[in-house]
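Recap quiz, item 2
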Amino acid sequence: MMFEWFNVILVIFLIVCAIAVERTKDLLAAVIIFASYSLFMSVLWLLLAAPDIALTEAAIGAGVTTLLFLVVISRTTRMEK
Amino acid sequence: MSKKIIIAILFILFVVLSISIIRMPDIGGESNPAYNDVTNYYIDNSREETGSMNIIAAIITDYRAFDTLGETTVLFSSIIAVFSVLSMKGDKHE
Amino acid sequence: MNDLIVKLISRLLIPFIQLYGIYIILHGHLSFGGGFSGGALVGSSLMLYAIIFGLKESEKKLPHSVSQFIESFGVLAYIIIGFIGMILVGSFLSNKSAGFSLGEFGTLFSAGMIPLLTLAIGIKVASTMITLLQRLLKEDSHD
């Protein structure tokens, strides 16, 4: 029962993160919010008993994607027009 | 006016999706459509046929190895796409 | 990046990340994980090195020609292992019937071709990530 409520809290956090990424004008802040989205997604995968997917999500979603987005932002503009 | 119609359509979609989520079978339950003969076949026979302790590894690199070859090809073609876009020697001015 | 703390901590941390990634790749048929997860870990440690110490140091450790070769080698090894089964028994990517020794259940050298395929996928994923980052950083330094 407690794990189900934890799942619900995590899913609500994911929805809030997704809306915040879409509303933010500062692309650097949006990338950081997206990294936290991936981190909570990996915790959710762990609770759904899929540790291999959680490992991949934490490495690729929170690490590699954020790094590639940061490099691309440093080549273009930081603020959304 | 059109905004109200959009909100109404989105609300109807929200209600329909919420009802379908509530009526979904449980995760790992017996009534789940993903729980069928194939699952039992892997659990019973993967030890003799592949010798792998991890059934997921047995599935993705033995039973479905051709699928994994396709995934690797997707990675390879993605890096080819990045290289070909970034090394274009087109006109530099906007 | 010229920050002493970041350089020191990442210099301490990178070997452990790489060791964990190699462990995940080699134990792909025993515990959870496999080629994609372990390759992502090794690749992210290489990316960390490249972004902390700069493109020049990174290319000194892993030149672009070498990483390009390794990347093509990953896919090629996968296909060659598949062709071994095709030549011996006539079906692509066959494991037990092609004569790969299954070994003792639960040990490191078991499960026939599964560790070889996992190793090929891990090498491929890791080299893909570091090649992408090096290409993007190189474009940055040209302008």
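The interface with chain A takes residues 24, 32-34, 36-37, 40-41, 43-44, 47, 51, 129, 132-133, 136-137, 139-140 of chain C (CB under 8 Å).
Chain C is about 75% helix and 0% strand.
End of item.
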